[in-house]
Amino acid sequence: MAVLNFGGVDEKVMTRDEFPLSKAQEILKDETVAVIGYGVQGPGQALNLKDNGIRVIVGQRKDSPTWDKAVADGWVPGETLFEIEEACQRGTIIQYLLSDAAQIMVWPSVKKQLTAGKALYFSHGFGITYKERTNIVPPADVDVILVAPKGSGTSLRKMFLEGRGLNSSYAIFQDATGRAFERTIALGIAIGSGYLFETTFQREVYSDLTGERGTLMGAIQGLLQAQYEVLRENGHTPSEAFNETVEELTQSLMPLFAENGMDWMYANCSTTAQRGALDWMTPFYKATKPVFEELYEEVASGREAQRSIDSNSQSDYRVKLNEELKALRESEMWLTGAVVRKLRPDNK
Q1: Structure pTM?
Q2: Calculated CA dihedral for residues 108, 109, 110, 111, nearest 10 degrees
């Protein structure tokens, strides 16, 4: 375990050099990992584990589209693909990767199969942190652990196939066997993490919910839409507004600051761009920090979690969600984006 200094703060980090795949394989050699859920995180984690030589089975509802997706990915019904309760019965490590709402609904069936010595694995701290709202309370004689890749399962799989790794956080909520730590790190390495940094279930879910609603998805869409609309309202064409709002950001500038940091990206732009960015950074900061403070307080209080539970548990949730996503997809900005993406040289 390395201790690295991040901006003056020491953090514990586990790298693949310190904990190689061969060590993870040795630790997990007698385990059967049951991946429950084949939606967002399930496919990437399950396939990476399998490709890394870990014994993996998948648990999924047989009447669901994701059952068919699992079959298409090579999981064999009755051999490596089972109904959820049977997969939980067969597994020694249960990776509970259903959506938060589905975890609440399925929990009674899963809990029945959590016999002494098993491990219950999450990639999100939601169910445990908000246990008063979810009723997910594991037995005292099982390990309760977390590995949370900092990205989608699609990204995890893509980077694995490219020989890269997606960074993950890890946490141990309950160590019943004395092996929780080695199980956690072994699983983190085996799913394809680049490196693993320590957190808690609570910190993971607070940061995750804030990030998703903030700069990762909610805030970025709000900022993009606001700038796009101002440009359009002032006579700029859809193509010009989209290129200046989205295309230059994602195709040119993001790779620059992803590579070496924001200061390096600033230094590699024109002096006019640098001056304006430095001047306008503070007004945007002052305008948005109160929103982030309000958002974090809503997350920490549990109110944001309850809104998600209430919404996602409704019988018509999927219909309403698809209507909202359709409106987003068919907005002028993203219809323009669909055309612009086709014009990229790598798409010709």
Answers
A1: 0.87
A2: 50
Given a contact cutoff of 8 angstroms between Cβ atoms, the answer to whether 147 and 193 are in contact is: yes
Where in the sequence of the chain do the CATH 3.40.50.720 domains occur?
2-199
Q: What percent of the chain clears pLDDT 70, i.e. is strictly above it?
A: 99
Q: Classify domain 211-347 at the CATH topology level.
A: N-(1-d-carboxylethyl)-l-norvaline Dehydrogenase; domain 2 (1.10.1040)
| Sequence ranges of the chain with CATH classification 1.10.1040.10 | 211-347
How many angstroms separate the CA atoms of 58 and 52, rounded?
16
Tokens of 26: 């040795």
Question: Which one of 27, 54, 114, 124 is the catalytic residue?
Answer: 124
Active site residue 236: no
Going by the DSSP 8-state scheme, the letter that residue 348 receives in this structure is: -
Class of domain 2-199: alpha beta
How far apart (Å, rounded) are the C-alpha atoms in residues 129 and 264?
38
Q: Which pLDDT value is given to residue 348? A: 55
Q: What is the number of H-type helices and E-type strands within the chain?
A: 19, 10
pLDDT exceeds 70 at position 260? yes
Task: Please give the Cα distance from 200 to 50 (Å, whole number).
Answer: 27
Asked if residue 182 has pLDDT above 90, the reply is: yes
